[in-house]
Amino acid sequence: MTTVQQLNTQFGIDKHLSFCEDVSGLIVAEISNPQATASLCLQGAHLMAWQPRSQSVPVVWLSRDAKLAAGKSIRGGVPVCWPWFGAHAAESGFPAHGFARTMPWRVIESGKEPNGATRLTLRLEENEKTRVQWPHDARLELTVIVGETLRMELSTENTGESDFVISEALHTYFKISDIGAVRVSGLAGCDYWDKVGGSALNKQDGAISFASETDRVYINTATECSIEDDRLGRRIRIAKSGSLSTVVWTPWTAKAERMGDLGQPDGWREMLCVESANAIENIVRIAAGTRHTMVVEYCTEPL
Length: 303
What we know:
The chain is mainly beta. The protein has three helices and 22 strands. Strands 5, 11, 12, 14, 15, 16, 19 and 20 form an eight-stranded antiparallel β-sheet that branches. 41% of the residues are buried.
């Protein structure tokens, strides 16, 4: 296992990027440049925070009850869901949203972008446990570019000799003022599966507002969408490519209480998940020797 000292020697960037060990023993990359701050846990390649210097509050939300622990997912940030999204199709004992978000990743590259942003690339380290759950030859990499905008590139390369199928998501939790005071625009006219309403297929009419638990998978859409937050006076723009599904989720009171790590009693009201994904009808078949990349880019602008 690479040590913090080795990471800082090989990949650290003065006044931009450094590595430290959390009290849990997990290693965290800390990014601080003239444009933004961010942190990322190497377990799961899990971006935990991102705040442009122009913003008085974070854009990516992390629960105040979030805990870092070996082999456990972190509540908030941007979990990497791969190679399946949701429950496994056949094995109920396999972890929801796949194994990528709880496995060790290895830093393979870092650098400064021409515009002053900070770049960090990690690769998933396969092991016997992952191969039991998903016996395919693949290379998964995540590149994160932290600046006034946040860009994330999740790349799956089929290094084997036969095709395989994946579903995936960047399960981003966004910091908002209050769930009752925001709306999501850009998905009007899109079809969605309503996972709260008995998996019914519906069509979105206008902007999305929230008054109860919401769990929707919008399909066959690569469109940009945005979170409009009147109280914070900002719009969070979410642009993507290589993704044909968008998931919109808020747990509401009862589910949040059962989950227990959303920052009780009302931390859930300050977050909203808008996830760029490939799920349900939009699963991706990757031919042998080819690569699929899903890219998301987040930025803010005043309302």
